[in-house]
Amino acid sequence: MLAKAGISADFYHAGLSTEMRNLKQDRWIKSQIRVIVATNAFGMGIDKPDVRFVVHMDVPDCVEAYFQEAGRAGRDLKKAYAVMLFSQADEVQARERLEKSFPPIDELKRVYQALYSFYNIPYGGGKGQVYDFNMMEFCTHYRMSTLAVYNATQLLKGEGYLEVTDELDNPSRAMFVVSREDLYRVQVSRKELDAITKLLLRTYTGLFTSYANIDEGYLAKISGVSVQVVYELLKQLTKAGVISYIPRKKTPLIIFTEERLDDRNIRFSPENFRLRKERYLQRLNAMLDYCNTRQCRNRQLLAYFGEKNDRPCGVCDVCLEKTELELSRFEQDTIKSEILKTIGDSGALPNVIAESVKFSSEKINTVLSWMIDNGMVEIVGEKVVSRVS
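Above: the chain's sequence. Below: its structure in C-alpha coordinate form.
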Protein backbone atom coordinates (compact mmCIF):
# COMPACT_ATOMS: atom_id res chain seq x y z
CA MET A 1 0.00 0.00 0.00
CA LEU A 2 2.80 2.41 0.85
CA ALA A 3 4.62 1.67 -2.41
CA LYS A 4 1.42 2.23 -4.40
CA ALA A 5 1.04 5.59 -2.64
CA GLY A 6 4.48 6.59 -3.95
CA ILE A 7 6.35 6.09 -0.65
CA SER A 8 9.70 4.35 -0.77
CA ALA A 9 8.98 1.19 1.26
CA ASP A 10 10.05 -2.43 1.53
CA PHE A 11 9.22 -5.50 3.65
CA TYR A 12 11.32 -7.70 5.91
CA HIS A 13 10.68 -10.95 7.78
CA ALA A 14 12.61 -13.99 9.01
CA GLY A 15 11.50 -16.16 6.08
CA LEU A 16 13.67 -14.26 3.59
CA SER A 17 17.08 -15.58 2.62
CA THR A 18 20.07 -14.22 4.53
CA GLU A 19 21.29 -12.39 1.41
CA MET A 20 17.90 -10.73 0.86
CA ARG A 21 17.59 -9.72 4.52
CA ASN A 22 21.06 -8.17 4.49
CA LEU A 23 20.31 -6.32 1.24
CA LYS A 24 17.04 -4.84 2.52
CA GLN A 25 18.56 -3.93 5.88
CA ASP A 26 21.57 -2.26 4.23
CA ARG A 27 19.38 -0.26 1.83
CA TRP A 28 17.25 1.00 4.71
CA ILE A 29 20.26 1.97 6.86
CA LYS A 30 21.68 3.92 3.91
CA SER A 31 18.26 5.65 3.48
CA GLN A 32 17.83 4.18 0.00
CA ILE A 33 14.52 2.87 1.42
CA ARG A 34 12.50 5.30 3.51
CA VAL A 35 10.12 2.91 5.29
CA ILE A 36 10.61 -0.71 6.32
CA VAL A 37 7.50 -2.78 7.17
CA ALA A 38 8.67 -5.71 9.23
CA THR A 39 8.09 -8.37 11.80
CA ASN A 40 10.09 -8.11 15.02
CA ALA A 41 12.83 -10.16 13.32
CA PHE A 42 14.03 -6.80 12.00
CA GLY A 43 16.24 -4.37 13.86
CA MET A 44 18.27 -6.54 16.22
CA GLY A 45 21.46 -4.59 16.88
CA ILE A 46 20.64 -1.90 14.32
CA ASP A 47 21.59 1.63 15.36
CA LYS A 48 20.22 3.94 12.66
CA PRO A 49 20.21 7.39 14.28
CA ASP A 50 17.58 9.23 12.19
CA VAL A 51 14.50 7.02 12.65
CA ARG A 52 11.58 9.42 13.05
CA PHE A 53 8.71 6.96 13.58
CA VAL A 54 8.34 3.48 15.01
CA VAL A 55 4.74 2.34 14.52
CA HIS A 56 3.38 -0.82 16.13
CA MET A 57 0.36 -2.22 14.30
CA ASP A 58 0.09 -5.07 16.84
CA VAL A 59 0.52 -5.14 20.60
CA PRO A 60 3.90 -6.66 21.59
CA ASP A 61 3.90 -9.55 24.05
CA CYS A 62 5.70 -7.60 26.76
CA VAL A 63 6.78 -4.13 27.86
CA GLU A 64 10.47 -5.02 27.40
CA ALA A 65 9.93 -5.74 23.69
CA TYR A 66 7.94 -2.54 23.17
CA PHE A 67 10.51 -0.46 25.05
CA GLN A 68 13.39 -1.83 22.96
CA GLU A 69 11.56 -1.53 19.64
CA ALA A 70 10.13 1.95 20.27
CA GLY A 71 13.56 3.04 21.52
CA ARG A 72 14.97 2.74 18.00
CA ALA A 73 13.35 6.09 17.17
CA GLY A 74 15.20 9.37 17.67
CA ARG A 75 18.66 8.14 18.56
CA ASP A 76 20.02 11.34 17.01
CA LEU A 77 18.23 13.15 19.89
CA LYS A 78 15.88 14.93 17.49
CA LYS A 79 12.10 14.75 17.84
CA ALA A 80 10.73 11.31 17.04
CA TYR A 81 7.51 9.38 17.62
CA ALA A 82 6.62 5.95 18.99
CA VAL A 83 3.07 5.09 17.94
CA MET A 84 1.01 2.05 18.86
CA LEU A 85 -2.33 1.42 17.17
CA PHE A 86 -4.61 -0.12 19.78
CA SER A 87 -8.26 -0.97 20.30
CA GLN A 88 -10.10 -3.36 22.60
CA ALA A 89 -10.14 -5.93 19.77
CA ASP A 90 -6.34 -6.01 20.03
CA GLU A 91 -6.61 -6.98 23.69
CA VAL A 92 -8.88 -9.90 22.79
CA GLN A 93 -6.44 -11.05 20.10
CA ALA A 94 -3.49 -10.72 22.49
CA ARG A 95 -5.20 -12.97 25.03
CA GLU A 96 -6.05 -15.49 22.32
CA ARG A 97 -2.36 -15.43 21.35
CA LEU A 98 -1.54 -16.47 24.92
CA GLU A 99 -3.41 -19.75 24.48
CA LYS A 100 -1.76 -20.42 21.11
CA SER A 101 1.65 -19.91 22.70
CA PHE A 102 1.17 -23.08 24.76
CA PRO A 103 0.19 -25.84 22.31
CA PRO A 104 -0.96 -29.32 23.46
CA ILE A 105 1.65 -32.00 24.28
CA ASP A 106 0.81 -33.99 21.13
CA GLU A 107 1.59 -30.93 18.98
CA LEU A 108 4.92 -30.44 20.79
CA LYS A 109 5.89 -34.06 20.15
CA ARG A 110 4.93 -33.74 16.49
CA VAL A 111 7.20 -30.68 16.04
CA TYR A 112 9.97 -32.38 18.05
CA GLN A 113 10.00 -35.47 15.80
CA ALA A 114 9.69 -33.40 12.63
CA LEU A 115 12.75 -31.31 13.56
CA TYR A 116 14.94 -34.39 13.94
CA SER A 117 13.50 -35.97 10.77
CA PHE A 118 14.12 -32.75 8.83
CA TYR A 119 17.86 -33.23 9.39
CA ASN A 120 17.71 -37.04 8.97
CA ILE A 121 18.74 -37.67 12.57
CA PRO A 122 17.95 -41.22 13.78
CA TYR A 123 16.63 -42.19 17.22
CA GLY A 124 19.45 -42.07 19.76
CA GLY A 125 21.47 -39.61 17.64
CA GLY A 126 21.81 -35.87 17.22
CA LYS A 127 23.16 -34.77 20.59
CA GLY A 128 25.38 -31.70 20.18
CA GLN A 129 24.72 -31.37 16.45
CA VAL A 130 24.18 -27.90 14.96
CA TYR A 131 22.37 -26.96 11.74
CA ASP A 132 21.26 -23.84 9.91
CA PHE A 133 17.54 -23.44 10.60
CA ASN A 134 15.24 -21.91 7.99
CA MET A 135 11.88 -21.94 9.74
CA MET A 136 9.90 -21.04 6.62
CA GLU A 137 11.45 -23.96 4.71
CA PHE A 138 10.72 -26.30 7.62
CA CYS A 139 7.10 -25.11 7.97
CA THR A 140 6.48 -25.43 4.23
CA HIS A 141 7.95 -28.94 4.16
CA TYR A 142 5.74 -30.19 7.00
CA ARG A 143 2.75 -27.89 6.32
CA MET A 144 2.87 -26.36 9.78
CA SER A 145 2.11 -22.76 10.74
CA THR A 146 5.11 -20.62 11.62
CA LEU A 147 3.42 -19.47 14.85
CA ALA A 148 2.83 -23.07 15.98
CA VAL A 149 6.43 -24.06 15.20
CA TYR A 150 7.89 -20.97 16.86
CA ASN A 151 5.88 -21.53 20.06
CA ALA A 152 6.72 -25.24 20.10
CA THR A 153 10.45 -24.62 19.68
CA GLN A 154 10.40 -22.12 22.54
CA LEU A 155 8.79 -24.68 24.84
CA LEU A 156 11.15 -27.44 23.69
CA LYS A 157 14.00 -25.04 24.38
CA GLY A 158 12.62 -24.44 27.89
CA GLU A 159 12.59 -28.20 28.50
CA GLY A 160 16.26 -28.48 27.47
CA TYR A 161 15.77 -30.55 24.30
CA LEU A 162 17.20 -28.01 21.87
CA GLU A 163 18.42 -24.46 21.35
CA VAL A 164 17.17 -22.19 18.56
CA THR A 165 18.88 -18.88 17.91
CA ASP A 166 16.84 -16.20 16.22
CA GLU A 167 19.64 -13.63 16.07
CA LEU A 168 20.62 -12.71 12.55
CA ASP A 169 24.28 -12.45 13.51
CA ASN A 170 25.24 -15.43 15.67
CA PRO A 171 28.53 -15.24 17.55
CA SER A 172 31.02 -18.10 17.40
CA ARG A 173 30.37 -20.86 19.93
CA ALA A 174 32.44 -23.66 21.39
CA MET A 175 32.01 -26.54 23.84
CA PHE A 176 34.35 -29.30 25.02
CA VAL A 177 33.08 -32.74 23.99
CA VAL A 178 35.65 -34.69 26.04
CA SER A 179 36.00 -35.11 29.80
CA ARG A 180 38.62 -33.21 31.76
CA GLU A 181 40.70 -36.41 32.03
CA ASP A 182 40.61 -36.98 28.26
CA LEU A 183 41.44 -33.33 27.66
CA TYR A 184 44.53 -33.66 29.83
CA ARG A 185 45.69 -36.65 27.75
CA VAL A 186 45.21 -34.63 24.54
CA GLN A 187 47.24 -31.75 25.99
CA VAL A 188 50.09 -34.11 26.86
CA SER A 189 50.10 -35.94 23.53
CA ARG A 190 49.36 -32.96 21.26
CA LYS A 191 51.61 -30.13 22.48
CA GLU A 192 50.54 -27.88 19.58
CA LEU A 193 46.98 -27.85 21.00
CA ASP A 194 47.94 -27.29 24.63
CA ALA A 195 48.13 -23.49 24.44
CA ILE A 196 44.73 -23.02 22.76
CA THR A 197 42.95 -25.37 25.22
CA LYS A 198 44.45 -23.52 28.20
CA LEU A 199 43.48 -20.19 26.62
CA LEU A 200 39.87 -21.33 26.25
CA LEU A 201 39.73 -22.63 29.83
CA ARG A 202 41.18 -19.38 31.24
CA THR A 203 38.89 -17.13 29.20
CA TYR A 204 35.48 -18.85 29.31
CA THR A 205 33.49 -20.84 31.86
CA GLY A 206 30.99 -23.66 31.48
CA LEU A 207 32.62 -25.08 28.35
CA PHE A 208 32.20 -28.67 29.56
CA THR A 209 28.42 -28.38 30.04
CA SER A 210 27.12 -26.13 27.26
CA TYR A 211 28.10 -23.95 24.31
CA ALA A 212 29.73 -20.64 25.21
CA ASN A 213 29.95 -17.59 22.97
CA ILE A 214 33.59 -16.99 22.02
CA ASP A 215 35.37 -14.16 20.22
CA GLU A 216 38.30 -15.19 18.01
CA GLY A 217 39.49 -11.59 17.79
CA TYR A 218 39.70 -11.27 21.57
CA LEU A 219 41.47 -14.63 21.88
CA ALA A 220 44.00 -13.50 19.25
CA LYS A 221 44.60 -10.21 21.06
CA ILE A 222 45.30 -11.72 24.49
CA SER A 223 47.46 -14.52 23.07
CA GLY A 224 49.50 -12.31 20.71
CA VAL A 225 48.75 -14.21 17.50
CA SER A 226 46.60 -13.48 14.45
CA VAL A 227 42.87 -14.23 14.23
CA GLN A 228 43.61 -16.70 11.42
CA VAL A 229 45.96 -18.67 13.70
CA VAL A 230 43.27 -18.88 16.40
CA TYR A 231 40.73 -19.96 13.81
CA GLU A 232 43.00 -22.73 12.50
CA LEU A 233 43.79 -23.98 16.02
CA LEU A 234 40.06 -24.16 16.86
CA LYS A 235 39.51 -26.17 13.67
CA GLN A 236 42.32 -28.53 14.69
CA LEU A 237 40.69 -29.02 18.11
CA THR A 238 37.44 -29.85 16.30
CA LYS A 239 39.12 -32.40 14.00
CA ALA A 240 40.78 -33.97 17.05
CA GLY A 241 37.33 -34.45 18.63
CA VAL A 242 38.16 -32.16 21.57
CA ILE A 243 35.64 -29.38 21.00
CA SER A 244 32.52 -28.67 19.00
CA TYR A 245 33.17 -25.32 17.30
CA ILE A 246 30.54 -23.25 15.47
CA PRO A 247 32.10 -20.30 13.60
CA ARG A 248 30.25 -16.98 13.55
CA LYS A 249 27.57 -16.79 10.90
CA LYS A 250 24.56 -14.67 9.98
CA THR A 251 21.76 -17.23 10.03
CA PRO A 252 19.44 -18.77 12.63
CA LEU A 253 20.77 -22.02 14.08
CA ILE A 254 19.22 -25.07 15.73
CA ILE A 255 21.30 -26.98 18.27
CA PHE A 256 20.13 -30.41 19.44
CA THR A 257 21.21 -30.61 23.06
CA GLU A 258 19.92 -34.16 23.61
CA GLU A 259 19.73 -37.34 21.54
CA ARG A 260 16.48 -38.06 19.69
CA LEU A 261 13.87 -39.85 21.80
CA ASP A 262 10.72 -41.71 20.85
CA ASP A 263 7.35 -40.27 21.93
CA ARG A 264 7.10 -42.51 25.00
CA ASN A 265 10.33 -41.13 26.47
CA ILE A 266 9.77 -37.41 25.83
CA ARG A 267 8.97 -35.77 29.17
CA PHE A 268 7.47 -32.34 29.78
CA SER A 269 7.29 -30.78 33.22
CA PRO A 270 3.75 -29.56 34.09
CA GLU A 271 5.32 -27.18 36.62
CA ASN A 272 7.58 -25.64 33.95
CA PHE A 273 4.55 -25.17 31.68
CA ARG A 274 2.56 -23.53 34.46
CA LEU A 275 5.37 -21.16 35.42
CA ARG A 276 6.10 -20.20 31.79
CA LYS A 277 2.42 -19.49 31.18
CA GLU A 278 2.14 -17.43 34.37
CA ARG A 279 5.21 -15.36 33.43
CA TYR A 280 3.84 -14.84 29.92
CA LEU A 281 0.47 -13.71 31.37
CA GLN A 282 2.16 -11.31 33.80
CA ARG A 283 4.17 -9.71 30.99
CA LEU A 284 1.10 -9.51 28.73
CA ASN A 285 -1.02 -7.92 31.49
CA ALA A 286 1.67 -5.30 32.09
CA MET A 287 1.69 -4.52 28.35
CA LEU A 288 -2.11 -4.20 28.24
CA ASP A 289 -2.06 -2.01 31.36
CA TYR A 290 0.31 0.29 29.50
CA CYS A 291 -2.04 0.38 26.50
CA ASN A 292 -5.06 1.22 28.67
CA THR A 293 -3.33 3.60 31.09
CA ARG A 294 -4.67 7.03 31.99
CA GLN A 295 -1.33 7.93 33.58
CA CYS A 296 1.76 9.49 32.04
CA ARG A 297 3.22 6.73 29.87
CA ASN A 298 6.80 7.61 30.70
CA ARG A 299 6.09 7.36 34.43
CA GLN A 300 4.42 3.99 33.91
CA LEU A 301 7.38 2.64 31.92
CA LEU A 302 9.85 3.84 34.53
CA ALA A 303 7.75 2.29 37.32
CA TYR A 304 7.68 -1.02 35.45
CA PHE A 305 11.49 -1.05 35.33
CA GLY A 306 11.71 -0.14 39.02
CA GLU A 307 12.46 3.57 38.72
CA LYS A 308 10.48 6.34 40.37
CA ASN A 309 9.62 9.61 38.68
CA ASP A 310 6.87 11.83 40.09
CA ARG A 311 6.94 14.35 37.27
CA PRO A 312 4.83 13.71 34.14
CA CYS A 313 6.83 13.77 30.91
CA GLY A 314 4.55 16.31 29.20
CA VAL A 315 5.02 14.79 25.73
CA CYS A 316 3.11 11.47 25.71
CA ASP A 317 -0.47 11.33 24.43
CA VAL A 318 -1.90 11.15 27.98
CA CYS A 319 0.05 14.22 29.10
CA LEU A 320 -0.83 16.13 25.93
CA GLU A 321 -4.53 15.45 26.45
CA LYS A 322 -4.26 16.77 29.97
CA THR A 323 -2.33 19.89 29.06
CA GLU A 324 -4.75 20.75 26.25
CA LEU A 325 -7.39 21.80 28.82
CA GLU A 326 -5.04 22.03 31.82
CA LEU A 327 -7.27 19.50 33.60
CA SER A 328 -6.70 15.97 34.71
CA ARG A 329 -8.14 13.29 32.47
CA PHE A 330 -10.52 12.32 35.28
CA GLU A 331 -11.83 15.87 35.63
CA GLN A 332 -12.23 16.28 31.89
CA ASP A 333 -14.10 12.98 31.44
CA THR A 334 -16.33 13.53 34.49
CA ILE A 335 -17.32 17.08 33.51
CA LYS A 336 -18.07 16.02 29.91
CA SER A 337 -20.22 13.15 31.15
CA GLU A 338 -22.17 15.33 33.60
CA ILE A 339 -22.73 18.06 30.99
CA LEU A 340 -24.15 15.53 28.52
CA LYS A 341 -26.31 14.00 31.25
CA THR A 342 -27.70 17.44 32.21
CA ILE A 343 -28.36 18.40 28.59
CA GLY A 344 -30.22 15.17 27.83
CA ASP A 345 -32.36 15.13 24.69
CA SER A 346 -33.91 18.57 25.11
CA GLY A 347 -30.87 20.72 25.96
CA ALA A 348 -30.21 22.91 29.00
CA LEU A 349 -29.48 26.53 29.87
CA PRO A 350 -25.88 27.35 30.89
CA ASN A 351 -26.94 28.27 34.44
CA VAL A 352 -28.68 24.91 34.84
CA ILE A 353 -25.50 23.15 33.73
CA ALA A 354 -23.46 25.22 36.21
CA GLU A 355 -25.78 24.22 39.05
CA SER A 356 -25.87 20.52 38.10
CA VAL A 357 -22.20 19.87 37.47
CA LYS A 358 -20.25 19.76 40.75
CA PHE A 359 -17.09 21.51 39.58
CA SER A 360 -15.95 25.11 39.51
CA SER A 361 -17.51 27.37 36.85
CA GLU A 362 -14.03 27.96 35.38
CA LYS A 363 -13.50 24.23 34.76
CA ILE A 364 -17.06 23.78 33.45
CA ASN A 365 -16.62 26.65 30.99
CA THR A 366 -13.25 25.27 29.85
CA VAL A 367 -14.71 21.84 29.08
CA LEU A 368 -17.89 23.28 27.57
CA SER A 369 -15.87 25.47 25.19
CA TRP A 370 -13.81 22.41 24.20
CA MET A 371 -16.99 20.41 23.55
CA ILE A 372 -18.36 23.17 21.31
CA ASP A 373 -15.06 23.43 19.41
CA ASN A 374 -15.01 19.67 18.89
CA GLY A 375 -18.62 19.40 17.73
CA MET A 376 -19.97 17.52 20.74
CA VAL A 377 -22.48 20.25 21.66
CA GLU A 378 -23.76 23.47 20.12
CA ILE A 379 -25.66 26.59 21.19
CA VAL A 380 -29.20 26.70 19.84
CA GLY A 381 -30.99 29.86 20.96
CA GLU A 382 -30.14 30.15 24.63
CA LYS A 383 -29.72 26.41 25.24
CA VAL A 384 -26.77 24.09 25.01
CA VAL A 385 -27.81 21.14 22.83
CA SER A 386 -26.03 17.80 22.39
CA ARG A 387 -24.75 16.76 18.97
CA VAL A 388 -23.70 13.31 20.22
CA SER A 389 -25.95 10.68 18.64
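The longest strand covers residues 172-176.
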